[in-house]
């Protein structure tokens, strides 16, 4: 049984109360679909979505509700729901009916059990567990993706605890400012093993929500490394329930442990020998939490003072990078190539990139510029925006008439857009449709668009290789230009 204790009547009542009218029916007729602008391109042979095929009434309700939620929140088009998602959810329901016929919710089954059994079922039915990615590597099968999405959705849907007590925190529900140009909205504590998960949640709750000493992004980075320390503790001292008896030797053993475990994370670090930077971050996080625990005299804190546990010599030196191998700014000849091909970009992204180059703002800060970001003074036009990383409000930089025109074109575009009511945060570059509506443009989408442009139209560096744009490249370009101009 899932840790969120629920009964079948409560499940049925909560879901049924939210499904009204068309959405409550077991057959959804396409011609009566209540969101005509979300239909997409539907094959003429498709006339109906039939939920009666799902034999378990509770699972049917959950799949129906998840479909309703995804369609009304613009996560799916009706066409993609009918062509892709519904069949995969129906296939999952057949598996549940065969292997777990008595369940009253998908979350009745422990997640690892569900995943292991479903993988076997998919293999038995000749469904692949992974698909090759067109850019190299692999991605998870959509069948497994639907299973995970449904499980995550209802784990949260039925969980009525305060957000900070859950194992996954949604930034939207924490009531704190966050970077709305990023799409990773969760703090996931499931990588922290018991019995230390609650300790880490308590620490993040205090530092992020109560004292607000760290940002949401910093909390995410802490969790990316923190699990290693508690993996080590659980493996070394399986009976420990706190850190009271932590000794200097344990820190030395932990350093050896980190040095001899491959790095996890994204494709460019996964399975690599740990770098000095990785070791520094792992140890810094340990020192950080111990300092906090001892400073506030938590009963779980080590008895040995942190400065007798961790010494400056424990931190390795960062590897020096060859500047020419890691170009940090966009040189003039690269920018000229971008300008030559700017018309091949989406017009909004093109405007955003020109503003970013002219102002030196971080990409995340340009994405989150306010609609009324222009200011006129006696000495000319200025662009006003927050510098969130250094916590500077309403930072201003001078801009040319040409940039003013570009900003005004974007303002006019947003003010005349039929979906402008979705711009609740009054961004200059808002997302107005789809599941991210109301958010700012994604900073990753900007970098991705630039790199796609470079690849397609052969924007080349001095070695004749495709230039790779990075997040802060234009900010560094602005700084280099300021230095060069005296």
Brief descriptors of the model:
three-stranded antiparallel β-sheet; 486 residues; mainly alpha; hpI Integrase, Chain A; two-stranded antiparallel sheet; 3 domains
Tell me what you see in this structure.
This protein is mostly helical and 486 residues long. It folds into three domains: 8-157, no CATH class; 164-320, no CATH class; 329-484, Orthogonal Bundle (hpI Integrase, Chain A), CATH 1.10.443.10. Helices cover 45% and strands 8% of the residues. The protein contains 16 helices and nine strands. It has helices spanning 8-18, 57-72, 78-99, 111-124, 142-157, 197-210, 216-236, 248-259, 276-295, 306-309, 332-340, 347-359, 363-367, 401-415, 443-456, 473-484, and strands at 27-29, 48-50, 130-132, 138-140, 168-170, 186-188, 374-377, 380-387, 392-398. The strands form four sheets. A three-stranded antiparallel β-sheet has the order 7-8-9, with helices on one face. A two-stranded antiparallel sheet has the order 1-2. The chain has a two-stranded antiparallel ribbon with strand order 3-4. A hairpin with a 5-residue loop joins β3 and β4. The chain is globular, with a radius of gyration of 26 Å. The chain starts with 7 loop residues before the first helix and ends with a helix. Mean pLDDT is 88; it is low at 1-6, 265-269 and 482-486. Keywords: DNA recombination. It comes from Bacillus cereus ISP2954.
């Amino acid at each position: 049984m899932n840790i969120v204790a629920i009964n079948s009547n409560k499940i049925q009542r909560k879901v049924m109360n939210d499904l009204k009218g068309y959405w409550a029916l077991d057959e959804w007729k396409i011609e009566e679909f209540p969101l005509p602008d979300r239909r997409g391109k539907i094959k003429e042979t498709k006339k109906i979505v039939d939920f009666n095929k799902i034999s378990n009434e509770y699972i049917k309700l959950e799949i129906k509700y998840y479909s309703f939620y995804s369609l009304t929140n613009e996560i799916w088009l009706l066409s993609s729901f009918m062509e892709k998602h519904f069949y995969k959810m129906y296939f999952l329901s057949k598996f549940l009916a065969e292997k777990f016929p008595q369940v009253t919710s998908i979350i009745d089954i422990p997640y690892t059990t569900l995943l292991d059994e479903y993988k076997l079922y998919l293999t038995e039915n000749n469904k692949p567990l992974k698909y090759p990615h067109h850019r190299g590597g692999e991605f998870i099968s959509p069948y497994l993706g639907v299973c995970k999405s449904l499980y995550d959705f209802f784990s949260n849907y039925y969980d009525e605890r305060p957000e900070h007590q859950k194992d996954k925190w949604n930034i939207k529900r924490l009531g704190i400012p966050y970077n709305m140009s990023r799409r990773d909205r969760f703090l996931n504590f499931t990588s922290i093993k018991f019995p230390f998960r609650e300790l880490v949640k308590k620490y993040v709750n205090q530092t992020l929500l109560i004292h607000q000493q760290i940002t949401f992004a910093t909390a995410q980075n802490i969790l990316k490394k923190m699990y290693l320390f508690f993996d080590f503790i659980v493996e070394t001292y399986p009976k420990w329930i706190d850190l009271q008896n932590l000794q200097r030797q344990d820190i030395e053993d932990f350093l050896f442990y980190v040095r001899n475990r491959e790095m996890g994370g994204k494709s460019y670090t996964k399975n690599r020998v740990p770098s000095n930077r990785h070791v520094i971050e792992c140890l810094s996080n340990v020192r950080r939490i111990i300092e906090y625990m001892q400073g506030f005299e938590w009963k779980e804190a080590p008895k040995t003072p942190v400065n007798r546990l961790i010494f400056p010599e424990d931190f390795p030196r960062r590897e020096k990078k060859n500047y020419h191998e890691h170009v940090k700014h966009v040189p003039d000849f690269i920018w000229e190539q971008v300008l030559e091909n700017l018309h091949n970009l989406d017009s909004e992204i093109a405007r955003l990139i020109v503003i970013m180059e002219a102002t030196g703002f971080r990409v995340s800060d340009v994405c989150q510029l306010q609609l009324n970001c222009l200011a006129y003074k006696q000495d000319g036009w200025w662009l006003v925006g927050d510098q969130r990383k250094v916590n500077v409000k309403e930072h201003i930089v001078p801009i040319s008439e040409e940039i003013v025109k570009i900003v005004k074109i974007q303002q006019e575009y947003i003010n005349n857009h039929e979906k402008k009511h979705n711009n609740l945060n009054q961004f200059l570059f808002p997302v107005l449709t789809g599941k991210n509506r109301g958010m700012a443009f994604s900073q990753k989408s900007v970098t991705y668009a630039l790199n796609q442009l470079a690849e397609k139209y052969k924007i080349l560096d001095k070695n004749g290789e495709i230039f790779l744009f990075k997040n802060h490249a234009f900010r560094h370009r602005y700084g280099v230009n300021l230095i060069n101009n005296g």
